[in-house]
Amino acid sequence: MKPTLFILAAGMGSRYGGLKQMDALGPDGEAILDYSVFDAEKAGFGKIVFVIREDFADDFKRVVLKKYEGKVACELCYQSIDKVPAGCTYNHERTKPWGTNHAVLMGKDIIHEPFGVINADDYYGPESFAILAEFLRSKEGKKNEYCMVGYRVCNTLSENGSVSRGICETDIDGFLTGVVERTSIERKNGVVCFTENGEDVQIDENAPVSMNMWGFTPEYFDYVENAFKTFLKEKGSELKSEFYIPTLVDELIHKGVATCKVLDTPSKWFGVTYSNDRQDVVDRFAKLAADGVYPRPLF
To answer: How far is residue 230's CA from residue 297's CA, in Å, rounded to a whole number?
Structure first.
């Protein structure tokens, strides 16, 4: 059975005014997520599942899914603030859903095979999808063996300002032991460094960082659901608390329930962190097409 790619796209409706004007960054009007779909299909993912807001489903089908018809198998599921486990309560003054791991939970009833998780608005690169797909194919029928594609921090920087990244700590066998959030990461005087207590601290430019590209087997959904119930008991009254993927993965690792292999990738991540990044992204996609990495048009 081929693995599935789960794309977290529920935040796109507000960003693009109901998706009527998705940001066209590729040379033929492609959005970033189009490249992820193309790369995933080429890497051997059998199906793409998008989690979106139900109120922009019609726009999404027309603007996004239509271009994949007959080429890539796609399904939709929906994230909304009221989709919580039976018996759970929350503060009804809250206006936004519960974060990335809540979005993952929305796929519980339609994904029954090993699956990858990515953000819709990040470019991950074809090598990363090939690496992720190979790992997931090897986990068919297995449980509690997860992965995270770890990007070399030097391949995730912006030319237009500093970035924040989760620096991955691993054991001697390459399994994740923890993630340390670092802020104000940038290249200064030829070296990559972050800011701590007002001082620059150099970091190995090949240090792995998390860009929210994960691989799971289906029992992960059960862990998510149980953890979300606990989360709502503890934080359900809060208006802005979020239920994140790394928090649960870290908990499962430290309880000895699961492992998470950090997979090295040579791919260069990019996205629009700053407004000035947009032209750089446009230029990168134009070069990738000119170099023959992608066809024109993509679909």
So the answer is: 47
- Tally Cβ neighbours within 10 Å of residue 227: 17
Q: How much helix, strand and coil, in percent to the nearest 5, is found in the chain?
A: 30, 25, 40
Q: Quote the CA–CA distance of 61 and 69 in Å, as a whole number.
A: 10
Bond from prior residue into 85 cis (ω within 30 degrees of 0): no
Per DSSP, the chain holds a count of helices (H) and strands (E) of 8, 11
Give per-residue pLDDT as tens, 208-239.
999 999 999 999 999 999 999 999 998 888 88
pLDDT for 16 equals 44
Q: Where are the beta strands (DSSP E) in the chain?
A: 4-8, 47-52, 74-78, 115-119, 145-152, 163-170, 176-188, 191-196, 199-202, 208-216, 259-265
Provide the residue count of the chain: 299
- Asked if 211 and 129 touch (Cβ cutoff 8 Å), the reply is no
Whether the per-residue pLDDT at 14 is higher than 80: the answer is: no
Tens of pLDDT, residue by residue over 147-198, are: 999 999 999 998 888 999 999 999 999 999 999 889 899 999 999 999 888 8
Long-range contacts of range 136-142, CB-CB < 8 Å, 24 or more positions apart?
136/3, 136/215, 137/2, 137/3, 137/44, 139/114, 139/215, 139/217, 140/1, 140/113, 140/114, 142/217
Please give the Cα distance from 85 to 288 (Å, whole number). 44
Q: Which two three-digit tokens encode residue 185?
A: 């990461």
How far apart, in whole angstroms, are the C-alpha atoms of residue 63 and residue 24?
A: 12
CB atoms within 10 A of CB 221: 19
Q: How far is CA 261 from the centre of its chain?
A: 16
The pLDDT of residue 183 is 87
Residues contacting 157, CB < 8 A, separation 6+: 163, 185, 186, 187, 192
How far lies 252's CA from each of 74, 100, 113, 138, 177, in Å?
30, 17, 20, 21, 11
**Domains parsed from the chain with CATH numbers:** 4-148+209-239+268-290 (3.90.550.10)
